[in-house]
Amino acid sequence: MKSALITALLLSAGWAQAGGIKYEHAPVVSVEPRYETHRTPVDREICWEEQGYERVREGGNSTTSTIVGALIGGAVGNRMGNSRSSRRAATAAGAAVGGTLGHEIGRERNASTHYYPVNRERCSVQRDWREERVVSGYRVGYRHDGHVYYTDMPHHPGDSIRIRVTVTPAP
Asked: Which of 21, 47, 91, 108 has its CA at 20 to 30 Å from residue 7's CA atom?
């Protein structure tokens, strides 16, 4: 049993040398940062004053047109009724409708329109872009066995890096 174990260890040691992997530290000879540009939207509100005009209607509160409208409406309503009571109701309804119409007509006719300047604040949102250069990784040169090799790394390596050395037999 002991001899089988020793034989297995020797065979595995031979295989480890044939396809062996070992780790070493290699000195770093150059580090070059790699950059990316990130764009970020920045919204800002811009406001300004703008002059406009506001329409104002003045006047038009004369009672004459209301009274004339009520009289005409009452007269028309008085002619509508057949009996005394229906004539009174029609007269009252005609006076009410005529007074309302007369008031509206007089208000429109006698009113004057004026325009007054007013300042209004207007705002809009403007989108700008902020660009920022950030380090995205490093191009690292290291020396091993008299040669310089390069690799990309996500972080700064320092003075040396750990490398894996694979040994394989030549054909």
From this structure: 21
